[in-house]
Automatic annotation (TrEMBL), chain A:
It is found in: Endoplasmic reticulum. This is 3-dehydrosphinganine reductase. It catalyses: sphinganine + NADP(+) = 3-oxosphinganine + NADPH + H(+). Its main location: endoplasmic reticulum. The keyword Transcription regulation does not apply. CDD domains: KDSR-like_SDR_c. The keyword Lipid metabolism applies.
TrEMBL record, chain B:
This is 3-dehydrosphinganine reductase. It is found in: Endoplasmic reticulum. It holds the Pfam family adh_short. One of its GO terms (cellular component) is endoplasmic reticulum membrane. Its main location: endoplasmic reticulum. GO terms for biological process: 3-keto-sphinganine metabolic process; sphingolipid biosynthetic process. Catalyzes the reduction of 3'-oxosphinganine (3-ketodihydrosphingosine/KDS) to sphinganine (dihydrosphingosine/DHS), the second step of de novo sphingolipid biosynthesis. The keyword Glycoprotein does not apply. Keywords: Endoplasmic reticulum, Lipid metabolism, Membrane, NADP, Oxidoreductase, Sphingolipid metabolism, Transmembrane, Transmembrane helix. It comes from Gloeophyllum trabeum (strain ATCC 11539 / FP-39264 / Madison 617) (Brown rot fungus).
Length: 313, 327
């Protein structure tokens, strides 16, 4: 869309499909979209959480015409993604949603040398495949039906960079970016827009889960983070979509990394991105240097940790 | 850095996955010529046999240990077992360097991919490298061994374009893993490197062009590729210069420096110049690529029509045909 005719995307009256919509960012998006007058469909695995989520979404109803639906499915495979899409489009006469928001993915940080095959595979399932299968199912159907729409991928600051502890998670989040960047280019064939939201730490049930396995050194490096609420993140995401940005971030740290890894991805505003680029060029090496020092300083403690667990003599 | 010795392959055990063809084979031959013990790993026994012959022709000393191991690198257990077998041939010692060259590309339109082709794409780009990296890291740490893990990604891990939905995600994922491990393996005496080549004229490249969409070929038509020997030489040089990210050409360096995030630069002054060039040139490049895609719309619609894409009723997985929706 040429920039001079940009119409701000508005959720009102649109069918928005949110995967991972029963908790965390997904739930915050679902309730925000409902409050803005959208039809909302949510998909997740657990029925109980879906039922609780539907109550919260219902509480935001603006008009009796709004259609809210939920469906329980395992989105880690193509079959689940297709079944979920069938279910949520049924009440819309089979028409594809106007926008899909691909939230999902609990992280399980741990040391690489303590990771099993299952840990790494699971990280990719939860952090990448749950988004890829739904994106694939929806894209095919949008193209079959000749319909336009928006696909919003959700990755993480850890899709732009990484550090100790994130070997099962960061690759998956980088992969999401890879798919988003490919599709931003490819789906120009069909007038389907692609966006990528990279949130930083959010106060969600997922965050509580992740801290269970997180190595101490990882927590130490992250101690300066100030987690935001999923509602704040949802608002930032929707603003970015309305502004027509391909890559969207909700916090300054991620903004700096977005600018520093932009490559050939579209920029937001030339002057603003120039300033960010310059700031990032100076700031990110300092951050990395400090982080590397902390990891090196952690060596003796880590050696003790490995011996305790029998991973080293 | 000024006083550290250049890493010398002579006498070192180098484990090269994908070592029977393309970049991997060229690297295996180069390392043999430099006096290393080389283990090559791939699936096809026949190709491994031929590769060993080529490596034998470069043998420098009678003590060099040149071996091949056949396995499916996409399988975590097989990848582990192959590494164990290679270590056994060296008195149980871990390799000094792991070069993860295994990988293939099968481009295509996203809407024409199947579940199988998308999974295979991830297997052949990411898991082919990750499983061996996992096995190697665990072994090196257990034995308190010093070593290097060298990933081979692609310029399509810095950016992506139409046709690569089954390929780029895996290559981006390799970068994510390399970034994590560069940081994490500072806990041990293990270095991490990652190579981002563009086109390499190899058997893999010929295969890739069989499925590559025309519009993708057109976008890439001005790209200059490298021969496997050239790519291998650049890769080894980059490892010896202690570069983390290694790019073999101008385009690669422009993308490397403009997507660096928190990645260390190789040479601050030169990299800054690359970044400046990219800052101006890349938006223009992207605009031309987007234009090519948009101009392809009509032809693509006809292509899909020809292949019966629109003839299929919108059938859900529950089997029944849904009402024909309006456009």
């Amino acid at each position: 869309m040429p920039f001079w005719s940009k119409e701000s995307w508005n959720a009102s009256g649109k069918h928005c499909y949110v995967t991972g919509g029963s908790s965390g960012l997904g739930l915050a998006l679902a309730t925000t979209l409902a409050a803005r007058g959208a039809h909302v469909s949510i998909v997740a695995r657990g029925q109980q959480r879906l039922d609780d989520a539907m109550k919260q979404i219902e509480a935001k109803r603006q008009s009796p015409d709004q259609i809210f639906r939920s469906f329980s499915a395992d989105l880690r495979g193509a079959a689940g993604a297709n079944a979920a899409l069938d279910a949520i489009t049924e009440v819309h006469d089979g028409r594809t949603p106007d926008a899909i928001f691909l939230c999902a993915g609990v992280a399980t940080p741990r040391f690489f040398v303590e990771s099993t095959e299952q840990d790494l595979a699971s990280g990719m399932d939860l952090g990448y495949w749950t988004e890829a299968w739904t994106a694939w199912a929806v894209t095919k159907r949008m193209v079959e039906q000749g319909r336009k729409g928006k696909i919003v991928f959700v990755a993480s600051t850890l899709g732009y960079m990484s550090f100790v502890g994130w070997s099962s998670y960061s690759p998956a989040r980088h992969a999401v970016r890879g798919l988003a960047d490919t599709l931003r280019s490819e789906l120009l064939l069909y007038d389907i827009d692609v966006h990528l939201f990279c949130p930083n730490t959010m106060h969600t049930p997922g965050y509580v889960e992740e801290n269970r396995t997180k190595p101490q050194i990882t927590s130490l490096i992250e101690e300066g983070d100030s987690p935001v609420s999923p509602e704040q993140a949802a608002t930032a995401l929707l603003k970015g979509v309305a502004d027509g940005h391909t890559h969207i971030s909700g916090d300054m740290v991620t903004e700096l990394f977005r600018a520093a890894t932009r490559g050939s991805a579209p920029y937001h505003n030339f002057v603003y991105d120039c300033i960010l680029d310059t700031a990032a060029f100076i700031a990110t090496p300092i951050w990395r240097s400090m982080t590397d020092s902390r990891v090196r300083a952690h060596k003796p403690e880590h050696a003790r940790y490995l011996r305790e667990r029998g991973l080293q003599k | 850095m000024l006083t550290s010795k250049k890493w010398d392959p002579r006498g070192k055990h180098c484990y090269v996955t994908g070592g029977s063809a393309g970049l991997g084979l060229a690297l295996a031959i180069l390392l043999t010529r430099k006096g290393a013990d080389v283990s090559i790993v791939a699936r096809h026994k026949g190709r491994l046999g031929k590769a060993l012959e080529l490596m034998e022709a470069e043998r420098q000393t009678p003590n060099q240990v040149l071996r091949s191991f056949s396995c499916s690198l996409n399988d975590a257990t097989e990848a582990w077992d192959a590494l164990e077998a290679a270590c056994k041939a060296h008195g149980g010692r871990c390799p000094d360097a792991i070069f993860l060259c295994a990988g293939t590309s099968t481009p295509g339109f996203f809407v024409e991919e199947s579940e199988e082709s998308l999974r295979r794409g991830m297997d052949n780009t990411y898991w082919a490298g990750a499983w061996t990296a996992l096995a190697a890291a665990k072994r090196m740490v257990r034995h308190k061994a010093k070593g290097k893990i060298v990933f081979v990604s692609s310029v399509l891990a810095y950016m992506s374009i139409i046709g690569y939905a089954s390929y780029s995600p895996g290559k981006f994922a390799l970068r994510g893993l390399a970034e994590t491990l560069r940081s994490e393996l500072l806990l041990y005496p293990i270095d991490v490197h990652i190579f981002f080549p563009g086109t390499i004229y190899s058997p893999g490249y010929e295969n890739e062009n069989k499925t590559k969409p025309k519009v993708t070929l057109k976008i890439e038509e001005t790209d200059d590729g490298l021969h496997p020997e050239q790519a291998a030489a650049v890769l080894l040089k980059g490892v010896q210069k202690d570069y983390f990210h290694i790019s073999p050409d101008f385009i690669g360096n422009v993308f490397r420096t403009t997507t660096k995030g928190a990645t260390p630069l190789n040479n601050v002054l030169i990299d800054w110049v690359y970044a400046l060039i990219g800052w101006i040139a890349l938006p223009v490049w992207r605009w031309t690529v987007d234009k090519a895609v948009k101009e392809h719309r009509k032809e693509h619609a006809a292509y899909l029509e020809e292949r019966g894409f629109f003839q299929e009723d919108v059938v859900g997985t529950n089997g029944h045909v849904e009402a024909s929706p309006g456009a």
